[in-house]
Amino acid sequence: xxxxxxxVIGLEVHVELKTKSKAFCHCATSFGAExxxxxxxxxxxxxGVLPVLNxxxxxxxxxxxxxxxxxxxxxxxxxxxxxxxxxxPKNYQISQYDLPIARSGSLVIETKxxxxxxxxxxVHMEEDAGKLVHKGNIITTPYxxxxxxxxxxxxxxxxxxxxxxxxxxxxxxxxxLRLILLYLGVSDCKMEEGSLRCDANISVRPQGQQQLGTKTxxxxxxxxxxxxxxxxxxxxxxxxxxxQGERIIQETRTxxxxxxxxxxxxxxxxxxxxRYFPDPDLPPLRIDRDWVERVRRSLPELPEQARRRxxxxxxxxxxxxxxxxxxxxxxxxxxxxxxxxxxxxVVANWITGDLARLLNQSKLEIGDCRVTPALLVxxxxxxxxxxxxxxxxxxxxxxxxxxxxxxxxxxxxxRLIQISDESAVKAIVDEVIAGNPKVVEDFRNGKDKAxxxxxxxxxxxxxxxxxxxxxxxxxREELSRR
Length: 482
Description:
There is one protein chain. By secondary structure, this protein is of the alpha+beta class. It folds into three domains: 2-291, no CATH class; 301-413, no CATH class; 422-481, Arc Repressor Mutant, subunit A. It is 40% helix and 21% strand. A hairpin with a 7-residue loop joins strand 8 and strand 9. Helix 7 packs across helix 8 (344-362). The longest helix has 20 residues, at 224-243. The chain is elongated.
């Protein structure tokens, strides 16, 4: 059934900007304060007050739009979007309607069929609403409280074109967009705190049809998992409805995480009439080209640029480059290591292998662990010098991860120095050969795995301290004599 239909998906992503103060007043934007403590007459919508535009909000909007390859407007304005809701004290939201700050961009994503550019329709600035806290239940009388700390927080709305074709692509788009925003430093993108959230527009149509189907909107998806599952469910729901001859209703739906279903919130047969009009308290904003170029020159290295650099300068694979740019902290860690120890492939293997495994097991980010670039490089140098074996190096890394101690101290305190004395290793080799006559016979009969077993027995007998290259050489020499 599903192969007869095509999904058409567009995302509206709301990003809280990491400014110190709100969009149009000096109130703080920090998360987690006591309710209604970061408020003033402006963000409370008191009569007679005047908003003042936060310049940093505009700078962050320009940075984001340029990173998304958008065309920056010479002229934009703020509008009043009128609607009534308990957490919107002015009864209108300051937003941008017909003249946003940027349009016509693109974001390249990795799909199973290769890279594909997803169109960005527009980027515009607006202010956030407050937050409703619902109390009570069916037994006690339900009621709601209003926290206006978030009201007036600077927001960017990033609207994609309907270019996404699957829930998986939508997730990748969101992940890549979040990564760009984190590299730019314009938002902390903490979805659990609401600083990055998404509305998804979804419709289905028969394969090959150009005309769009009737879309539904899924509101306030605040995790990648929820986005993907909500779209999966909604695609299936719409296809089944069409197969039964039903008509899809244009509506706004919500995602029930507990039941894993979308549910209807309100009909949206016609677009809402928000009665937009230019905000009379905020003058139009002219964007000087020199300003745009200054912002463009200030942009940091972005994820795709970093991936190309890792591939071109260090000859790393695309796969390695993707792993090493999965966060700005990982990339910085890698670059710091390579500056101290110019063997990028070795560094990449340890970061994406053993260190990544320890981070995943501990549910830590690389910036929060005790292993620093200097400590990891110290470990790799001990390995190069032959002071420790690869197996011991992995054990030392685990100890470093737990304690934060220097690798040379761990090696010294635990007496882990590699045994490279030929006579000492030969004595162990002789014992292993004498104790495993059947395996020795298997080796003579051409069974290559037998040698691996004997190497393992020597390493076990030496508690992992024997030099592996020396062990292999001595075993082959002794076996060839007997």
